[in-house]
Design goal:
Dihydrofolate Reductase, subunit A; 4 helices; alpha/beta; 163 residues; eight-stranded mixed sheet
Length: 163
């Protein structure tokens, strides 16, 4: 199973404010859709609940939750990260999409990190992405910086591969 973490962070590795992303960048959302469509996405319950329209179309949606009665439409629910290996094929491309605790659980198993780095430090961040140690990760590709026309934020795409 090929596990990639896909995330947008600020310059302090911040990824969340009160259960939501600190910023929305239209081009990044399009990139996310292009990369994950046709593949499997894995998220925590809170991340799923933050999705405006529920399960994302044209993807296998898997939610990790300890709530026994959780049965969101269009999703499979597993109780532990270990169950993922039981229900996914070895050739399956899996994208971990958050939140913070789910990223921490899968960070050691990831082979690739697809990071959108927002060149800004948000003041009220309360959730962070794990530190990317250059001793363990190489930059595979980098694009940008770009500027979002709607919110004027500058951002870059940085793809890391595990050494």
């Amino acid at each position: 199973m090929d596990i990639s973490l896909i995330v947008a962070t600020d310059e302090n590795n911040g990824i969340g404010i009160n259960g939501d992303q600190p910023a929305f960048i239209r081009a990044d959302l399009k990139r996310f859709k292009a990369l994950t469509t046709g593949n499997t996405i894995v998220m925590g319950r809170k991340t799923f609940e933050a999705l405006p329209k529920g399960a994302l179309p044209n993807r296998r949606n898997i939610v990790i939750s300890r709530q026994n009665n959780l049965a969101p439409e269009g999703c499979e629910v597993i109780a532990t990260p270990g169950k993922l290996e039981e229900i996914c094929s070895p050739k399956e491309k899996v994208f971990i999409i958050g939140g913070g605790e789910i990223y921490k659980l899968f960070f050691p198993k990831a082979t690739q990190l697809l990071v959108t780095l927002i060149h800004h430090k948000f003041d009220t961040i309360d959730t962070w992405f794990p530190e990317i140690d250059p001793q363990n990760w190489d930059i595979e590709s980098q694009e940008g910086p770009f500027k979002d026309p709607q919110n004027e934020l500058s951002y870059s795409y940085i793809n890391y591969i595990r050494k």
